[in-house]
Amino acid sequence: MGEKKVSIGNVAFGGKEIVLIAGPCSVESEEQLLSTARVVKKEGARVLRGSAFKPRSSPDAFQGLGKSALEFLQKARSETGLPIVSELMDTSQVNALAGTVDCVQVGARAMQNFELLKALAKTNVPVLLKNGLSATVKEFLQAADYLSKGGNKNVILCLRGIRTFETETRFTLDLGLVPALKKLSGLPIVVDPSHAAGKRETVPALAKAAVAAGADGLIIEVHPEPENALSDSAQQLNFSEFQKIVPELNAVAKAVGRKI
Amino acid sequence: MGEKKVSIGNVAFGGKEIVLIAGPCSVESEEQLLSTARVVKKEGARVLRGSAFKPRSSPDAFQGLGKSALEFLQKARSETGLPIVSELMDTSQVNALAGTVDCVQVGARAMQNFELLKALAKTNVPVLLKNGLSATVKEFLQAADYLSKGGNKNVILCLRGIRTFETETRFTLDLGLVPALKKLSGLPIVVDPSHAAGKRETVPALAKAAVAAGADGLIIEVHPEPENALSDSAQQLNFSEFQKIVPELNAVAKAVGRKI
Amino acid sequence: MGEKKVSIGNVAFGGKEIVLIAGPCSVESEEQLLSTARVVKKEGARVLRGSAFKPRSSPDAFQGLGKSALEFLQKARSETGLPIVSELMDTSQVNALAGTVDCVQVGARAMQNFELLKALAKTNVPVLLKNGLSATVKEFLQAADYLSKGGNKNVILCLRGIRTFETETRFTLDLGLVPALKKLSGLPIVVDPSHAAGKRETVPALAKAAVAAGADGLIIEVHPEPENALSDSAQQLNFSEFQKIVPELNAVAKAVGRKI
Amino acid sequence: MGEKKVSIGNVAFGGKEIVLIAGPCSVESEEQLLSTARVVKKEGARVLRGSAFKPRSSPDAFQGLGKSALEFLQKARSETGLPIVSELMDTSQVNALAGTVDCVQVGARAMQNFELLKALAKTNVPVLLKNGLSATVKEFLQAADYLSKGGNKNVILCLRGIRTFETETRFTLDLGLVPALKKLSGLPIVVDPSHAAGKRETVPALAKAAVAAGADGLIIEVHPEPENALSDSAQQLNFSEFQKIVPELNAVAKAVGRKI
Prior knowledge:
homotetramer
């Protein structure tokens, strides 16, 4: 457990409870989002994720639904009561998102988008800050400093792996950094097993390992039909896979003196 | 030589001539910039570099002079006739820079700032696009696609090394990528030996090697007093070091059928 | 659980039980080894480790006690009944070790010592094969093929992390490879949290995470006085740290349907 | 130029002359080796390379002709006068090679085969020591220390690139390490553009860059029919490619005050 607690909506990170954040990679339609929100809530997720704006390596890839996705997220929150987290990529999106969602995610490719960090530092919106693909621990903490020294203390760190030569997993996730980051920052640490694994069959093992390593939360991609997803098709869990994983995570959580 | 030529001001990249871009890492004062501009022009540089806005890992580090630096750059251009290149970090800076400088630099940490790329795609300002620290060749070319498919064909690729375990050099620069990128993209390829080396005594060897490998240009940091520089102190060349390197580069250029 | 079971002495790897291998990095004296063997056995370790021959980056570092260490290992086995595993580095050591120890360890730097693998392939001694620091999963499995296709099927794979730019941990251990390797090879998978962590305070988190990820065994360095150890001083657990970790590991093991 | 000169046969490394080592990856037949030896000698190579024992990732790959290859190498030396360099992988090969060839190569995967280094330290045979795929500069120099502190000062360092996430080139070669290694060790530095590039069309650029960066020698794979080679098929130059590259290298050498 971290020294500092940070809340998304009414859900606290950094206490005894390990928080599940779940939802689709991209918001693709109202029905897709709502059906997923209902399932993940029922299974024990406490926060809903879903991207409206997508950073994509290729300009030809699906770029997100944008503002209509934000509307669907708000509907899902109204119906389920789950607070919502969504990614932003640019300073021009700060006002739109900071007033709408309960937490903004700064993705790996934006971890050193310093103007974005400075703009978020002037708000109070909780920030889920993911490590850059080639960022050292020192640089990750310096990026968090842009937020906290700039005035926004509501920072949650999210480990999602780094890029290495290994391609059997999509990214290389070092869970030894969970206790290291917690000690160095005192901040809550969330782990993203979906992006690290890159394929759904590896997600459960990494998720359980993250809980055992001391993570304060997990962010897991869940989709009604992963095989038809517009992004991250290979790594999103379907509903039954998510239903299966939660009690397994809970068992590991209890083994380390915590709970989901 | 690349198939496509791109010009910064009246200086063409991708032809027989290998273009030297030189100047301080950060614009620190009018005098610092002007004195450097005069020297690098005299020695053979064709474009002046200098950052007004600095992406820094730590929020406590010097962040650049901002708009006053842009004024100094314009003065330096007026006096020396050298076109100017300066870095931008955020969509909010596009209008200020695109109308002022002759080329905007997108740094390594912004290579996948897709909103910035989209905004620059709607201008015609030449873009010096540096590779991300963990970007593959494929991703580097996809970032360039955001510009060219979005409408701005004035793209120059800049190799500056990637992050690896090796710390003897600051970044790991693979010059085998010069011919590979040229073949795959047809774009002019500039090499940044200063950031790759990270220490001034290694810059000459890497610069000469880049010319031998087929680079269409070099971007080299030069400062009147590197030991007192506000950023990148260890890697900037002083005036006499720059004076010494240019004829050496020219000799290698001639050996591969080109010229500085 | 892997498809194939491999035994060291009478201890099976790849079944429901997760096996603890523990002991000092280097065998430094009879007393050091015996005192450690007694403690780790009492706490639940099933196999004793201890290096007689040490691969050291510097020629000035302690190189191991050699043959006298092998005698101490045999004494420790006689007294405690624990089978012993020790590292070998060269074909010239195969006969001495294969007849003496219950399992030979091929370290990261020898994973692609193909002559050594060929020599071990002609024996039946169980081999604990560690991944090379820059070996891909494919190369790791090909190294195992040198053993199994050469006639020695008694292969246990050991994950110990790879080298990356991150230095907060000594090596970067991707536990997503545990299920991947198990699926691809069918072999038992042991994880080495000590070398991956590089500092003792990180070992427990990584060890628990490895169990949660599905490891069939752990190899943990334990020393009576780590601060005075002749090698790997920072990462060896002392007796009380080892005593504390075992019930924690057992709890996680039970949570994933297994036991220590 | 390095401070220390080391000779292979009567060919000195570390002086004004940049030495070309050339020949096939593997010795495949007497005719293959002799025809290559004649061509590379005629074009300006001063040392002949050719492997008798091959370290191969897969046990199913061609493992080298072994002793008969050593006979062919001796014949080629007799006929052409070129001293010969060949790789060894294990202590058991030291006597056979040290008495036969003029220089033994320790490959990347054996750079930290410390028993092999200790055995070679007791001979006077010149050693071409390649950097390991994940070795730091410090570890590379420590491996050289095993030789020189052990009594064999005839060490030539060979840079061949490291493993990174980039796959456009086979390995990632940082030529900034040429001056760094020369300064730190004083030893002659040879560069291997063939393995770094991994494809023949990239070899010329890297080879010229290495000369410009200050290399004291190059080791280049040349084969009569690369498309039919039993190893490293993609990266070996054919005769006409080698004939074309030598004058280009000579031109760059002259530009940096040296010669081939």
